[in-house]
Amino acid sequence: RFYFARQWVDGTALRNVLDNESEDSTDLTITLERIRQIAEGIAALHAGGVVHLDLSPANVLLPAGGQAPVIIGLGSCWLLADTFPGLGHRGVPGYTAPETFAAGEDGYELTPATDIFSLGVLLFEMIAGRTPFGTGIDYLRYWSELTRRAKPFRLPMLCDGNWGDGLLNAHLRWCVEGMPQRRPQTVPEFLAPIGLLLRTLRS
Question: Which of the residues 24, 54, 106, 160 is marked catalytic?
């Protein structure tokens, strides 16, 4: 017999935290630090030549005691060096990048930017309490439009001052662009504005 073993995590899924947390109670500094840690975990996968393809709140575990989040759901991972078969959709609609539906077509290859889309959706939900494009069938109705250009959206005020709000809004729009070439291409690109905001919030 074959077995799959992973570390025991004494904590809860991010999904449970989001379901029991009101938008008004969200601390932006904690949220940005949490997404930074999640993104660094995704960067480790990318460094090994792997994309996750199934990043969602259910696949992020938050250990008790404040340790770094643990990313699970690795059954959908794909080697960047391999050719994705196309239409073999993986992940959760609403969190997974639209190119997973159209991989292999012109301009829709799986790259680290595929996971950047999911990080952007995750951060949006952690702040706004909802996903930008809906989930399930609602997202599936959007996907052909998303591959051309992500629908515009506006976030509520996220931190004190228009500067912070404008930077985060612009960054999130960049991360969930429908075309993968229009997004940040690496995790460090994704994290640069977040690091700037964290330093500002802590000063």
Answer: 54
